[in-house]
């Protein structure tokens, strides 16, 4: 496909972005492998210009080839981001003399990136990787003549290495970058699919790479906590390197790690100090659900914690954006009230007394029929409750505050309408899949602010735990599953023999999740998907998991209409 035809096919927005690259590169036949966009989805004039200059300076084929190579390595998305950040400095130094406006564009780019006065799009928040974000933020602060804000030596040293020099050619930059990664990540970038080399759940290309970037467990944000968190990241990488060596020697046994189940449980309890069930009940449920694909797993049911860092962050965000969220609560409450009134009106009969029905009044005048009133038939109307199940994996960390606010909006709207609601989140840490009760039926909605994104998401096991937790309430529940339809876990699926060779990701994980959803339906539960995803939305996959009971959310403004639509659909099936 020619560059001209490609630009036409992609539409006006992508065409504008491509034109920026083509103009800077001076080559309108170029088919770039990377295009840059701002937070609002519009083309990034400065960085696309830098990309164009870089393609011109270093050779498009050679540069894209190396970037594609990095993209298929472990931590590929972060490596690509870092290499482009290094190229930004070198390319700017080589090019600003040939473009008088480049300095102004650079300043505007930095200001836009640092501007938090407007709401970032959901897609931008989901795409953002925290290490890449920290390094890019540091560069933008320095462009503005400020301190870069980096605190610990590990991060400072890594960032310093990303000031590529303009006099170096591409082979020299590649070699320096390889050494930088080897020094700070304790590994040498290698292709994931290369025989004999370890890979970590990242075989689906960049769409998977975008999701799973260290650290897998969120640490505090204070100065000392941040430094401790980064040191833990470095320690985690060392542990992962050791795991790689063991895997290459075929020493890995499914479900058996360096930690005992008791030690892992103690660590889980340290993270979630409030349990939702007693130990005997937990073990009883574990025996029922940790079978088949999950026979080497464990479970834990956690209650709402005290007001910690996540609570303060999430609640603070809501207060800052309060007007916007309160408007949506009003809209959603009004829509739900209408749905409930219409539903209860459907369970009514004509009567000689009751509530006057305008559509029947003519019969009293013309036919003398006194049955122009309606009376409810409460014995036929079935009350229902709502369960909101949140993906609490670390891939959601960058939009944690937004997701907690959305959950609060849904729960508060339900409360105002008298609909009982339970809010839970799930994540997998080590061998333990944790289901945390953020709000039980009888509790107020404030516990939702304790939502925190950490770990992986073993969706199939989480759904099995949910079924046991709800028990008899399952058949009378409308379950909203807030998901990106991308379950994955570092612990694989057990197979015949001793090795765990099949990863819990992609088709294997989807199939396991589908089985668990079908099991809940057989028990009488009604399930609906609220889908927010950074990768291209797959309607066929959504239908496979949820039938026609799903909505694809791309902006906060869609939330109210989407929830009302799902509730209406549920009510109509009950009538």
Description:
This protein is 51% helix and 11% strand. The model is unreliable at 1-10, 118-128 and 191-258 (pLDDT under 50). The protein has two domains: 3-224, no CATH class; 279-323 and 381-574, Rossmann fold (3-Layer(aba) Sandwich), CATH 3.40.50.410. The chain has helices spanning 3-25, 45-58, 60-71, 76-95, 102-114, 122-127, 130-143, 153-160, 170-185, 206-209, 223-248, 261-271, 279-289, 309-320, 322-346, 361-366, 400-416, 459-470, 506-522, 539-546, 559-574, and strands at residues 298-302, 348-351, 355-356, 373-376, 385-391, 421-429, 432-439, 477-483, 489-493, 502-504, 526-531, 550-552. A seven-stranded mixed β-sheet has the order 1-7-6-5-8-11-12, sandwiched between helices. A three-stranded antiparallel β-sheet has the order 2-4-3. The chain has a two-stranded antiparallel sheet with strand order 9-10. With 575 residues, the chain is of the alpha/beta class. 37% of the residues are buried. The protein contains 21 helices and twelve strands.
Count of extended strands? 12
Overall geometry: globular
Structural class by secondary-structure content:
alpha/beta
Please, what is the oligomeric state?
A: single chain
Alpha-carbon distance between the two ends: 54 Å
CATH superfamily of the largest domain: von Willebrand factor, type A domain
Q: Provide the domain count.
A: 2
Residue-averaged pLDDT: 78
Q: In percent, how much strand structure appears in the residues?
A: 5-15%
How do the strands of the widest beta sheet line up side by side? 1-7-6-5-8-11-12
The main β sheet shows up as: 7 strands, mixed
Low-confidence stretches: 1-10, 118-128, 191-258
CATH classification, class level of the largest domain? Alpha Beta
Rounded Rg: 27 Å
Q: What name does CATH use for the topology of the largest domain?
A: Rossmann fold
What share of residues is helical?
A: 40-55%
Second CATH tier, the architecture of the largest domain = 3-Layer(aba) Sandwich
The tally of helices reads 21
């Amino acid at each position: 496909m020619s560059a001209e035809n490609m630009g036409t096919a992609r539409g006006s927005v992508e065409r504008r972005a491509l034109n920026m690259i083509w103009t800077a590169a001076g080559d309108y036949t170029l088919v770039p492998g990377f295009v840059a966009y701002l937070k609002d989805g519009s083309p990034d004039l400065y960085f696309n210009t830098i990309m164009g200059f870089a393609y011109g300076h270093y050779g498009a084929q050679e540069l894209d080839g190396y970037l594609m190579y990095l993209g298929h390595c472990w931590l590929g998305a972060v490596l690509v981001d870092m290499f482009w950040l290094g190229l930004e400095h070198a390319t700017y130094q080589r090019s600003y003399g040939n473009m008088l406006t480049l300095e102004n564009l650079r300043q505007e780019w930095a200001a836009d990136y640092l501007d938090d006065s407007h709401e970032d799009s959901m897609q931008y928040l989901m795409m953002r990787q925290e290490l890449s974000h920290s390094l890019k933020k540091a560069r933008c602060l320095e462009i503005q003549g400020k301190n870069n804000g980096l605190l610990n030596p590990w991060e400072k040293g890594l960032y310093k290495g990303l000031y590529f020099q303009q006099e170096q050619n591409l082979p020299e930059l590649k070699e320096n970058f390889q050494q930088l990664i080897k020094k700070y990540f304790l590994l040498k970038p290698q292709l994931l699919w290369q025989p004999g080399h370890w890979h970590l759940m990242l075989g689906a290309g960049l769409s998977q790479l975008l999701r799973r970037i260290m650290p897998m467990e969120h640490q505090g944000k204070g100065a000392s906590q941040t430094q401790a968190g980064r040191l833990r990241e470095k320690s985690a990488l060392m542990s992962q390197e050791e795991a790689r060596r063991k895997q290459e020697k075929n020493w890995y046994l499914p479900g058996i790690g360096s930690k005992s189940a008791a030690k892992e449980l103690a660590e889980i309890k340290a993270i979630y100090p409030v349990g939702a069930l007693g130990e005997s009940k937990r073990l009883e449920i574990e025996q029922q659900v940790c079978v088949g694909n999950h026979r080497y797993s464990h479970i834990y049911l956690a209650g709402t914690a005290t007001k910690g860092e996540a609570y303060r962050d999430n609640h603070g965000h809501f207060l800052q954006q309060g007007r916007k969220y309160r408007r949506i609560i009003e809209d959603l409450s009004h829509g739900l009230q209408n749905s409930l009134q219409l539903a209860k009106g459907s369970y009514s009969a004509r009567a000689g007394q009751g509530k006057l029905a305008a559509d029947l009044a003519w019969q009293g005048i013309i036919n003398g029929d006194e049955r122009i009133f309606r009376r409810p038939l409460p014995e036929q109307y079935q009350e229902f409750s709502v369960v909101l199940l949140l993906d609490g994996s670390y891939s959601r960390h960058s939009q944690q505050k937004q997701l907690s606010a959305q959950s609060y909006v849904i729960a508060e709207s339900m409360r105002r309408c008298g609909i009982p609601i339970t809010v839970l989140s799930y994540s997998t840490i080590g061998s333990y899949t944790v289901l945390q009760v953020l709000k039980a039926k009888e509790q107020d909605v404030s516990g939702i602010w304790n939502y925190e994104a950490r770990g992986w998401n073993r969706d199939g096991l989480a759904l099995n735990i949910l079924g046991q937790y709800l028990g008899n309430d399952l058949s009378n529940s409308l379950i909203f599953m807030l998901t990106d339809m991308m379950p994955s876990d570092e612990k694989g699926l057990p197979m015949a023999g001793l090795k765990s060779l099949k990863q819990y990701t992609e088709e294997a994980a989807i199939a396991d999740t589908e089985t668990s959803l079908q099991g809940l339906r057989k028990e009488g539960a009604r399930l609906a998907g609220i889908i927010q995803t950074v990768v291209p939305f797959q309607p066929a996959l959504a239908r496979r998991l949820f039938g026609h009971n799903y909505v694809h959310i791309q902006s906060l403004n869609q939330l109210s209409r989407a929830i009302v639509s799902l509730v209406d659909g549920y009510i109509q099936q009950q009538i």
